[in-house]
Specification:
Distance between the termini: 37 Å
Largest sheet: 7 strands, mixed
Number of helices: 8
Strand order of the largest sheet: 3-2-1-4-8-6-9
Number of strands: 10
Structural class: alpha/beta
Order of helices and strands: EHEHEHEEHEEHEHHEEH
Low-confidence stretches: 1-7
Strand content: 15-25%
Length: 257
């Protein structure tokens, strides 16, 4: 039996969010194809991409080593919270590993995530930022290192919580824990705070944090800055969640289940 055939006690869904960037998605899925341990399925959460994205995904499906589900809705602005809820509603995995459609996973990415997953925990990983020429930024070289001993040490170490460690491009959690807090808060629209606000509710509901360092490596493809016009409103929603120690949002995944 090869490592690619390693049986898992829990089905893993790899969740990839995308929007109108086929070239980047090609690189991401090629990285998934090369994984030492493949997920049970790949679910692509598409926030309203053009027809060329659908055509590309339909072509990739023909010979991809695992099933791909393409969950799409119409383009009505930045609605990442909504499309992720819709995608997770259709996911069949017990465990969700979430990444963006502009990050390239190192071939042990899923294997490293599975190594540290445990009931009652969510996992946050890091990223390696690339510059416009595709080179690793100097300040991110440490995030390239993969070491089992250090990875296991960091996974068992009690972390000091900070939202700056939470990145939706490298985040994992149990589907049941996600549903228990009603998933992403769809009151959050536009860029910013949807992942942080979700994690606060999960923490207030008893889910603990685990860090994935020295493994779970992803390279973030360079792109321009998104609009942050709604950031303050989203920040206010997050502040209300923290102030009230909320474990539930009113408009979430329950409407899609």
């Amino acid at each position: 039996m090869t490592r690619r055939d390693k049986p898992q006690a829990n089905k893993v869904t790899l969740l990839i969010s995308t929007y109108n960037w086929v070239d980047a998605l090609k690189r991401v899925l090629e990285g998934v194809r090369k994984q030492t341990v493949l997920p049970y399925e790949v679910v692509i959460a598409d926030d309203g991409s053009r027809e060329d994205t659908r055509e590309f995904i339909d072509e990739v499906k023909k010979d991809f080593p695992v099933r791909i589900k393409h969950v799409w809705h119409e383009d009505d602005g930045f609605r990442r919270s909504v499309i992720l809820n819709k995608a997770i509603a259709q996911a069949e995995g017990d465990y969700i590993i979430e990444m963006d459609g502009d990050v390239i996973p190192e071939r042990h990415f899923i294997q490293d995530h599975i190594e540290v997953m445990e009931q009652g925990y969510y996992v946050c990983g890091s990223r390696v930022m690339l510059d416009a020429e595709g080179r690793v930024r100097t300040s991110h070289y440490l995030n390239l290192i993969r070491c089992k001993l250090l990875r296991r040490y960091m996974a068992k170490k009690e972390p000091q919580f900070s939202t700056r460690h939470i990145r939706g491009c490298n985040l994992a959690f149990w589907r049941k824990d996600f549903i228990a807090v009603n998933g992403y808060n769809e009151a959050i629209v536009g860029w910013g705070h949807e992942d942080h606000e979700l994690i606060y509710r999960m923490m207030f509901n008893g889910v603990k944090e685990r860090r994935l360092k020295f493994g779970g490596v992803i390279r973030h493809i360079y792109h321009g800055e998104p609009s942050k016009a709604n950031k303050q409103n989203n920040n206010n929603i997050q502040d209300d969640t923290v102030r009230n120690k909320s474990t539930w949002c009113e408009k979430g995944i329950n409407q899609w289940l």
